[in-house]
Amino acid sequence: MLAVRLPLIVLCAAIITSGSAVAQKAYGPGVTDTEIKIGNIMPYSGPASAYGMNGKVQAAYFKKINDYGGINGRKINFISYDDAYSPPKTVEQARKLVESDEVLLIFNPLGTPGNAAIHKYMNAKKVPQIFVGSGASKWNDPKNYPWTMGWIPNFQTEGRILAQYVLKEKPTGKVAIFYQNDDYGKDYLKGFKDGLGEHANIIVIEESYEVSEPTIDTHVVKMKSVGADVLISFTTPKFAAQTIKKAAELNWKPLQIVPSVSSSIGAVIKPAGMDSAQGIISATYAKDATDPQWDDDPGIKEFRALMNEYLPGANLAESSAMVGYNTATSMAEVLRRCGDNLTRENVMKQASNLKNFEQGGLLPGITVSTTPTDFAPIKQLRLMRFEGNRWQLFGDVISIGSVH
After folding, report:
1. Could you tell me if 6 and 23 lie in one domain?
2. Is there a single domain that holds both residue 233 and residue 275?
3. pLDDT at res. 319
């Protein structure tokens, strides 16, 4: 049971070797007897800067691990660059990390467009593009892209789950779909339409936007004008907040649904206005660190302790903080399992053999599991509704499987 375990961060810091005690050391680029150099790419600026919290928490997590002695005696040298959510910049930063910094791997690079831009490059270079910060289905293709692995739930299958909810709650509704005009938004859109199946005729408008747009007000006005009573926002945080706020200003009160990646209270709900967000539906796989129900939970206690000591003043209501914590926990576990065989090949081998790995920041019943033929670590979700000042979970854990 979790309650009787040593804190995970201590386990990660322990000097534990993998396999035979007499095994020969094997190092890839960026590894020495005292260091493991890993790269990271985050949108610390630009239209998706809300996700930058991921990288800040990851840096804090690895600093704490280093303070406890590192992983198997090696300190983590975490090099994180800003790409401003711009694919050309992502390419530039990936090349810098691989060819100049000579990192062992690139961990949790964030965003669907940017990761798509470096996908082929990373695999041609045979450098792990691991625990990608995007739920695009393309990251689960170990046959063709054996060096790329996702982490968060698949966008398409989440879209299917949300579609099933709409069919149950509003089977004769008029649905407006608002989506980001890139692989991110289109993945959600495809999954949602697949989930509707023969009932796709309830969609009355599909409206897209570009991340370069400063405001999406005209789109919301247009979607209201067609009489939609269900609004699906396959948007990133900035635009999710704008959509919720504008709908309220128009006194438009459809059933609103936002994806798990845009459900942050700190980055979406508060900027939109708590009153405007009442009743909104989303999905999640992680605990909310601000929810009192987890006050005595060992995993949340550890997370809060990390934040208080290494990132004081950070907003725990930003869901990206928990994502950063959970992904860093997974990365630390993979490196721990690598022992003294810290090659790029062994990193992918260990990452693709995680079985029901429990993490303190995941909801009960949700674990990390991979196989050499399934690179989709998180395969469960729960639905939630925003009520009062927090999300309320409802229903059972839903297994979303994998999509190829």
Report:
1. yes
2. yes
3. 87
